[in-house]
Amino acid sequence: MTHSTPPDAEARQALRRAMLARRAALPPDEAARLGDAAQNALLASPAWQAARQVLLYVAVRNETATARLLEAAWADGKQVLLPRCVTSAPASSASGSTSSPAPSASGSTSSPAANCDNEMCLAPCACAADLTPGRYGIAEPDPTRCPAIDMDAAPAFAPGLAVIPGVAFDRQGNRLGHGAGYYDRFLAHPAMARTALVGLAYAFQIVPALPVAPWDRPVHALCTEEGLTWL
């Protein structure tokens, strides 16, 4: 999708603040209920069931939960890829978030972490024990146990499904993130053109239209507590 009009940065930031505040205000039991319903909708889909390699994220700060997806993927023998932020800048847990597998024994092709500087690497993660707190306090694949996968190395990298977090989505699949650009840069990689992208969110995070940028890549489906919808 090509957009000739530059994004309205002020409108994006205002919506980002409003959505983050609303998400933060969700009571824990309500967030759990909505998250379970959204995950159940995705787990029941043929796209999930057919995928042998899936890209997921670890939910933080009241993001739509993914714990059931992770456990189901591991139990079903899927290879789980999780994000790891690699940057030369000093870490700060107070910053915004990105969300994020078998260790090297899985046979995946790995690339040096230095190749992912200021980017979002993906690493195969075989179980919860492979996770460690990362740059923003988010659980990420432990770099000592989970080497980054080489996205240019097919068939080692060929996720059938990618579950993408967002602050908001619109009904055309456009996504509003936290503003750091990690997912924007990652989704622009040519290897991701073969992957079905599913935006996972609460229903209130879906808006009629977002101000978009030329580099934004829409998702192919939206999954909320109301169900999974392919666009």
TrEMBL record:
Family annotation (InterPro entries): FTHF_cligase, FTHF_cligase-like_sf, NagB/RpiA_transferase-like
GO molecular function per UniProt: 5-formyltetrahydrofolate cyclo-ligase activity
Disordered as annotated region, ranges: 91-110
Catalytic EC class: ligase
Cofactor: Mg(2+)
Keywords noted in UniProt: ATP-binding, Ligase, Magnesium, Metal-binding, Nucleotide-binding
The EC number(s) this enzyme carries: 6.3.3.2
Catalytic activity: (6S)-5-formyl-5,6,7,8-tetrahydrofolate + ATP = (6R)-5,10-methenyltetrahydrofolate + ADP + phosphate
Family classification: Belongs to the 5-formyltetrahydrofolate cyclo-ligase family.
Identification of the protein by name: 5-formyltetrahydrofolate cyclo-ligase
Organism the protein comes from: Nitratidesulfovibrio liaohensis
